[in-house]
Amino acid sequence: MNKIIFDPIHGIIELDPICIKIIDTPEFQRLRFIKQLGPVFYVFPSANHTRFEHSIGVCYLAGEMIHSLKEKQPELEITKQDILNIKIAGLCHDLGHGPFSHSFDSYILDTNKPFRHHEYRSCIILHHIIKKYNIELEETEIVKIKDLIYPDGSYNLNKKFLYQIVANDKNGIDVDKFDYLKRDTYYLGLKYNCDYSRIIKLARVINDEICFPKKLIFNLYEIFYTRTRLHQQVYSHPVCKSIEFMIVDILIDMNKEIDFNKCVENIDEFCKLNDNILTIADISKGFNKSKKLIKDIHCRNLYKYIGDIETSEIEVHKNNPNSIIDTLEIGISDSFLENVKFYDKDMNKSFNIDPKFISNLLLNFGVKKINRVYLK
């Protein structure tokens, strides 16, 4: 029997029994304790939403998109199993996130190991959940779901469009982005967001690829513009980044005892990790450096943001052991839609749009590279 829940972003959400079985496991419930925006809540107090509700939101939007495609295009032969697989992929795409999400992957884990990627870990954990709790899914379907979460380009020759719904590695237009942009702006209390509803309803498959009507260029631009504004004003906010670097130093200090690289390869051990790791450091014996950093965060004695510097000045600051150089690339390239296919009056023919046409039509193009310096 399906279960009904209420979400402040999408309203009433109906969840399949198999999705409920996955949600009601300790491995999935762990996402309640991993904040969607990591340390951002230290600066924006209402940004306390977690990977848990985001994952449910992506599950819902994935279902909405594939149902829309099935209804408009019966010739696609979308099956009930396809729909279920897409929903499970949306639900479980973030299972592999570690404490403070991307900071954990980028600064703590070995870059040469596949376990460094949270999508890879999501697939491993999902397989573990299915086997451990006897969830009724055939092995062939499990493989498909894992491919939907972490596409590698070697898709099933049939229905390649399915791989562009949850994690679109071709152009970045997917339901994961739709949910987190809407959810983040809502909990941050920002007035701007993006309207994904028309994109979902008017998306169409042509030549086994998800395409959009030409008239939705502004809506698609809005997706990327909202993302850019969030990076500029929130995700890369100097104080948020300062606290992030302090948390990274805490994790590096704890890594001496815990060895996170070994931990991520042990599912049972990894699934014990979440953002509460700072509390563990604070109440455990040892970790004196971590304890001081945690106190400094709470007392607002933060790493100091010095300012932006030119590329030519980087070497000077590299020689200072107390300096941190953070390189950011923020903006929208005029080729941001070069891998997006559109359709117009002929709904069976897709085409690309000339970047010059787009750059003349829309504003605020250009990617800016910024080097920021912080002092410990």
Key terms:
single chain, 376 residues, Hypothetical protein af1432, 3-stranded antiparallel β-sheet, 8 strands, globular
Structure, explained:
With about 375 residues, this protein is of the alpha+beta class. It has one domain (about 5-375): Hypothetical protein af1432, CATH 1.10.3210. Helices cover about 45% and strands about 10% of the residues. The chain has 17 helices and eight strands. The strands form three sheets. The chain has a three-stranded mixed beta sheet with strand order 3-4-7, with no helix packed on it. α4 packs across α7, α6 (about 120-130) packs antiparallel against α7 and α11 (about 240-260) packs antiparallel against α15 (about 290-300). The longest helix has 22 residues, at about 50-70. It is globular, with a radius of gyration of 22 Å. The model has no long low-confidence stretch (mean pLDDT about 90).
- Number of E strands: 8
Top CATH class: Mainly Alpha
Tell me the Rg in angstroms: 22 Å
Overall number of domains: 1
Morphology call: globular
Strand content: 5-15%
Side-by-side strand order of the widest sheet = 3-4-7
What would you say the CATH architecture is?
Orthogonal Bundle
Q: What is the topology?
A:
Blueprint: E1 3-7, E2 11-15, H1 17-23, H2 26-29, H3 51-72, H4 80-92, H5 102-107, H6 118-132, H7 139-149, H8 175-188, H9 197-202, E3 204-206, E4 209-213, H10 217-235, H11 238-258, H12 260-263, H13 267-270, H14 277-283, H15 288-298, E5 304-309, H16 314-318, E6 323-332, E7 341-343, H17 355-361, E8 366-375
Parallel strand pairs: 4-7
Antiparallel strand pairs: 1-2, 3-4, 5-8, 6-8
Helix pairs in contact: 3-4, 3-8, 4-7, 6-7, 8-10, 11-15
